[in-house]
Amino acid sequence: MATLNFKPTILTLFLSSLLILFASCKNDEDNTKEAEEIEVSQTMNAELTAPPLVPKPTGRRKAKKLVVDMEVIEEESEMTDGVKYVYWTFDGTVPGSFIRTKVGDEVEFHLKNHPDNKLPHNIDLHAVNGPGGGAESSFVAPGHEVVFSFKVLNPGLYVYHCATAPVGMHIANGMYGLILVEPEEGLPEVDREYYIMQGDFYTKGSFGEPGLQPFDMQKAIDEDADYVVFNGKVGSMTGDNALTAEVGETVRLYVGNGGPNLVSSFHVIGEIFDKVYVEGGELVNKNVQTTLIPAGGAAIVEFKIEAPGEYILVDHSIFRAFNKGALAQLKAEGKENKKVFSGKIEEGIYQPEGGGIQEMPVDEDELAASRPSDNPDLEEKMELGKNIYGRTCVACHQANGQGIPQVFPPLAEADYLNEDVKRAIDIVLHGKSGEITVNGETYNSVMTAQNISDQEVANVLTYIYNNWGNNGTEVTEEMVKAQRRN
Ligand SMILES: [Cu+2]
């Protein structure tokens, strides 16, 4: 009996798999075909948002004629403290406004080029089925406006960018953004959504060199980036601008990479991506630590926040994170979940290397202007110290001196600090490595010597000692000089 049944079974299997194969091929073709056939009901102005915000989900709404209104703006802005750059932008931000559509929408795109601009621009949307992604039809000179339209057929997260020659230069100056095409039924609901885009920048001066920095074509050709940043500048999402979420919430990040050159190894320190829509398409991967985001590509990542604290978003090509700016923060508030957090996290905490981590520029003019009187009073010292803290120490020791568990020791209510002021001065002057214990936790990492004047050391330490529950020591320039001689 068994042998008799064998052949028909195999044959049935074979035939049915053929059928499935055939059906699924047919299905794929049908998808865009069907999308083409979707009727649009009304006209609606697209909600556009500046990063890191995302427009409202399309939910169950029907396909519409969606009017997108964008303006190209060339403007000077800040790359990092004391460093300026002339950005070319869609809507005045890097990345440009987030566009949210759904399959079947007919997008009527209005692209304006501000009359104060110097150059023509255009837009190539990767969500477009058509030559140049709209580039040819959207070429627009300063003081003009063009209109073109397209129907969105394929769901996914797509990059748009300027494609005017020299293309690399327009992208390098910040001309990119994301357009999301939701499936007809919409994406599953989540609690928070954010918009993040990485980009590499090439400047005449090296990282942190103050002043207005022009674009450096040769470095761009050599792919030798001075800045690798999220959302157009160093610290766009740190400190007061950090992303936020609450414990128990699901977070969805729309992550793009404008390039022009570098591929991003996108990672969140302390989290695991529950879901990744690989390359922004339909394929969902689960339980991912680091996802690759090509230049001119994107990914959607989702995770649930299990424990409160700070999560650090990085390009895990890690020198880019700690030395070129590719670092952002997500702060999660809520109840401790000891069970989850005392267990192992994804890959252990990264042991940062000391070398020039986030070494912030010193602007000589700014310094001169802020030179205090010969005998600054405590209030003045606190003010100056706060500035220095914000410029140099905050990157590691964090906004309220709380540090980062296992990586950067706290300066708030820190027994190690309060025990010995000479030792603290020494650490700022000469750096520190080897194991130390602060508030019962051991740290074994490297702090590089801080390249700041004696007076600045005095001010910043005075600020720290007179804050966050520390013992109120006032550190004088003389005390620092004495340690410097030691
Ligand atoms: Cu352009």
Automatic annotation (TrEMBL):
* Signal peptide as annotated in the record: 1-23
User: What does UniProt give as GO cellular component?
Assistant: periplasmic space
Pathway membership, UniProt: Nitrogen metabolism; nitrate reduction (denitrification); dinitrogen from nitrate: step 2/4
**Cofactor(s) essential for the protein:** FAD; Cu(2+); Cu(+)
Entry annotated with the keyword Signal: yes
Molecular function (GO) terms for this protein are: copper ion binding; electron transfer activity; heme binding; nitrite reductase (NO-forming) activity
Residues of the Cytochrome c domain: 380-468
Subcellular location field = Periplasm
InterPro entries, from UniProt?
Cu-oxidase-like_N, Cu-oxidase_2nd, Cupredoxin, Cyt_c-like_dom, Cyt_c-like_dom_sf, Cytochrome_c-type_DH, NO2-reductase_Cu
E.C. number, please?
1.7.2.1
Q: Which residues bind Cu cation?
A: 121, 126, 161-162, 170, 175, 316
One matching Pfam family: Cu-oxidase_3
Q: What class of enzyme is it?
A: oxidoreductase
What GO biological process terms does the UniProt entry carry, in alphabetical order?
denitrification pathway; nitrate assimilation
Chief localization: periplasm
What reaction does this catalyse? nitric oxide + Fe(III)-[cytochrome c] + H2O = Fe(II)-[cytochrome c] + nitrite + 2 H(+)
List, alphabetically, the Gene3D superfamilies matched. Answer: Cupredoxins - blue copper proteins, Cytochrome c-like domain
Q: Which UniProt keywords apply?
A: Copper, FAD, Flavoprotein, Heme, Iron, Metal-binding, Nitrate assimilation, Oxidoreductase, Periplasm, Repeat, Signal
| Family, per entry | Belongs to the multicopper oxidase family.
Subunit comment = Homotrimer.
The protein depicted here goes by the name Copper-containing nitrite reductase
Per the UniProt entry, what species is this protein from, by scientific name? Salegentibacter flavus
Its organism's taxonomic lineage begins at: Bacteria, Pseudomonadati, Bacteroidota, Flavobacteriia, Flavobacteriales
